[in-house]
Write a structure and sequence with these properties.
The chain is mainly alpha-helical. The protein has helices at 3-11, 30-47, 85-98, 107-125, 131-153, 156-165, 170-177, 183-186, 190-195, 198-203, 209-216, and strands spanning 15-19, 22-26, 70-75, 78-83. A two-stranded antiparallel ribbon has the order 1-2. A two-stranded antiparallel sheet has the order 3-4. A hairpin with a 2-residue loop joins strand 3 (70-75) and strand 4.
């Protein structure tokens, strides 16, 4: 329905980008942007008979806007892409859901859900600059997974057995199995970082953001 708008903008000499009904029109100044908006709104509403969402329509510097989950910033190489904070928060909420210690999921199901989500998310946002974000997210996700396993082991004897299985000596394993610290606090302990280290979590089948990003990275 917006093909006619594309043609009109091209005829007027505007530079723009559109995906479905999300659009940005690029102008050299705020004054020019205001004028362009005032001139194009009548065409959309009176010629195409379409309603413009005025709450989501604004004239703003490109570095302050969100477009399809991305934000923009400028460096010596020109304009670059980042993942917008709202998209990051949405992603973290999803990871929280998938790594909840009380959702009753089996680990095979959890591994599959995380793999599908991570692959889809990275393939969508891979054109953005996000290496630091992904490394930080992976560390946080690993901590949540350690929390899940600690909750699943439940009983003292099970914790003792599993810690020994992952290479912790008898005395340390028994001492740690009897701790009364919270699940979240334990998840960042040296013992769990050592027993359920990064390599072990990979061997268990988990996929993480940064390692998949390196496989498909286009930057």
């Amino acid at each position: 329905m917006l093909n006619e708008l594309d043609k009109e903008l091209e005829k007027r000499g505007h530079r723009f980008v559109r995906y479905a009904d999300d659009m940005m029109i690029f102008c050299k100044s705020k004054k020019s942007g205001i004028r362009t908006l005032q001139n194009i709104l009548p065409y959309i509403e009176k010629k195409l008979f379409l309603k413009v969402n005025t709450e989501k329509t604004e004239v703003a510097y490109v570095g302050k806007i969100k477009f399809l989950g991305f934000s923009f910033y400028k460096n010596k190489n020109g304009m670059r892409l980042r993942v917008h904070p709202k998209a990051i928060n949405k992603m973290k909420s999803k990871i929280k859901e998938y790594t909840s210690r009380s959702n009753g999921w089996g680990n095979e199901y959890r591994i599959d859900k995380l793999k599908r989500y991570i692959r889809g998310w990275i393939n969508y946002f891979k054109i953005a600059d996000m290496k630091i974000l992904l490394k930080q997210t992976d560390e946080w996700m690993r901590r949540r997974l350690r929390m899940v396993y600690w909750k699943q082991w439940k009983r003292i004897r099970t914790k003792f057995k599993m810690l020994k299985q992952f290479g912790i000596n008898n005395w340390k394993a028994w001492q740690f199995a009897n701790t009364r610290k919270s699940y979240w606090r334990i998840s960042n302990s040296p013992i769990l970082n050592r027993s359920l280290d990064n390599k072990t979590l990979n061997n268990l089948g988990f996929l993480f953001f940064f390692e998949y990003y390196e496989q498909v990275c286009v930057n």
